[in-house]
Amino acid sequence: MQGIFPNIRHMRVFLETARSGSVSIAAARCHLSQPAATQAIKQLETTFGTALLIRRRKQAALTTCGALFAQRAANAMRHINEGASAARRETGTKARASFETSVTAAQLRSLIAIANAGSFTVAAKALDLSQPTVHRTARSLEAIAGTPLFIARSSGVRLTPAAEVFVRGAKLAQSEIQQSYEEISRELGRESGSFVLGSLPLARTTIVPKAIHAMVSTFDGFQIRVVEGRYTELIRSLREGDIDCLIGALRDPAPADDIAQEPLFEDALAIVAHPTHPLAKKCNLRLEDTLCYPWIAPPKDTPAGQYLFETLRIEDQPETPVRAVSSSMAVLRGVLAQGPYISIVSRHQIKIDEKLGVICKLDVPLHGDLRAIGLTYRNDWKPTQTQSLFIDYLRQFSSVSTQN
């Protein structure tokens, strides 16, 4: 069910039934006949493979699975409504005030696919539909919204600002639906689940691999996908629901009001080189002693890069020693092995490399270099029980890593 929306009108009928305890009342509120409302709920139950309601003579009650779905479906509808409101603010009075109540699941699926692909054609392939079908669905969404959502360009299509904010609500809604499916599967004894973890370089060496191994060893049906990238890209994916959680260096202040940060431990920076470097075995070095050697520096927008360029102000030298810039440990490891290069990096990140004897810390004292490492997630994100267990493993191995 990954990436699939149930029928949105069916979800509205179900939620109204959950609130009122009556299919008849729900049908009236949704402007449907009672048989149509009953059929809508049955189709949802078929989708999830279990009963969501217990039908009684005077009142309908939620099953355990129904209660799980009701909470997630309500969150999904809230995200869609908030996305629509944000789109209206983006366009002033152009967007129709009721388009969130008219949007269909097919339109949201197409919107998300187009946003991800940047092309009607590629989106159609991802959805296993024809390009004309996706194009018609996208244009029908524009008609309902009452404002342009897609702008053609030579390389494909891009979203308008209104579509950008609306697609965020759609993706967050989709994430809630996926979580409801996983929670219901767990309740029915069909253990399954998924976790999309955004990982910054520091955590990739030991914390993430150990947490993955512990989780895979515990649950057969759980799948973890690790996404790497620049911090700004990962934060955007996190806020849009494409990523569940991010692990790595925290930012001060937090990047957005809807983001929460959980510190796990503090990590120090170190100036490093290959063990064969002329400075490798010297003591009481100063930063100035390193400046006659070529540097491979981390990007300025990373915590290590900020420290190097803003605190140590390495570029204020008459001639900057920085000859290469990269955040890749593989590149750093390879460059240091080629010659007398120097860099600055997290001590935790090079722990294994130090043990293997391929990178060594130079005896250059640093001050104010401690940085908080932890988890970053959305304020309103509620992990499933299985996802919470994976989070606990990340916390556990973060704690262990500071003790070793």
UniProtKB/TrEMBL annotation:
Organism (species): Planktotalea frisia
Superkingdom assignment: Bacteria
InterPro entries according to UniProt: LysR_HTH_N, LysR_subst-bd, WH-like_DNA-bd_sf, WH_DNA-bd_sf
GO-annotated molecular function: DNA-binding transcription factor activity; transcription cis-regulatory region binding
HTH lysR-type domain span: 6-63, 103-160
Annotated gene: cmpR_2
Pfam families linked to this entry: HTH_1 (PF00126), LysR_substrate (PF03466)
Keywords associated with the record: DNA-binding, Transcription, Transcription regulation
Name this polypeptide is given: HTH-type transcriptional activator CmpR
Family: Belongs to the LysR transcriptional regulatory family.
Signal peptide (from-to): none
